[in-house]
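note to self — DONT lose this again. spent like an hour looking for the file last time. sequence + predicted structure for the chain T wanted, 312 res
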Amino acid sequence: MPLVSIVALSHNHARFLPEALDSVLAQTYPSWELVIVDDASTDVSVAVIEAWAAANPGCVAHIIRISAAESRGACAAFNHGLARCRGEFIIDFATDDVLLPTRLAEQVAAFASVGPQVGVVYTDAELTDEAGTVLRRHYRRDAAGQPRPAAPSGDVFAHVLGWYFISSPTMMIRRAVFTELGGYDETLAYEDFDFWVRSSRTWQYHFLDRVLTRKRLHPRSSSRSFYRPDDPKLASTVRICRKAVALCRTPAEWAGLRRRLRFELRQALRYGCWPEAHALAGLLATVPGVPALMRWALRQVAGLAAWQTAAT
């Protein structure tokens, strides 16, 4: 049975840790290892982790504690854990989320059914509030119960450029994908968009239409601050889009990138993220398929954003 390595990332998740770690212990699939990485928590997370490990001897392969002085962000924290993993498959597990009992078994079975060209199996998820009350599913459903918009399988590169459709916590990833990519890019402020872009260029994805994860929504979630002018994640998005320019090949892929750049530019302008707006407008103006009049308009937007950047 293939070994599954679960990299459990904790940052001030003390109140959620017992439920998250217990959900690993409750898996019906027996071949797994747990690597816990605490990234500079300032609450009692480390104490909770140590107490849980003591109460469940032999269940934790490694506990990695990263101090505030050593912390370089979530991407680097995950890579620390990844370096200790032995599994054929990897799960990046935030410890404010919950794995449902058959998650590992069903995703390993899915990998066995689709073949070695598939690098990622992802699923639907239940979204919960801080107390764990289920709010809705990640995918909306039509009258026939099908996800809308549809969740694609196979070559998804053009799709991941154009829109966010994957619930990151649901992914099980073939270790060979991380070996090829060299893990997450530690220079970025967040990981998933860059991972999707780089991995889907050479690996296929498979959607398993099952709910196997509960993702917790709460006010401290990093996604809540994405478009604040002082938040570094939008600048990372610009860098990822520049990577994508070098990877695009087909009209559908260029169309996906244009859609992404337009969306991110609108958000940057809406929230006053002027340096990023300048960069996004300039990048969009260079992408194939943009009409000449729009290129002119984008140059004006870039100029305005540059003026606002200087003014602030």
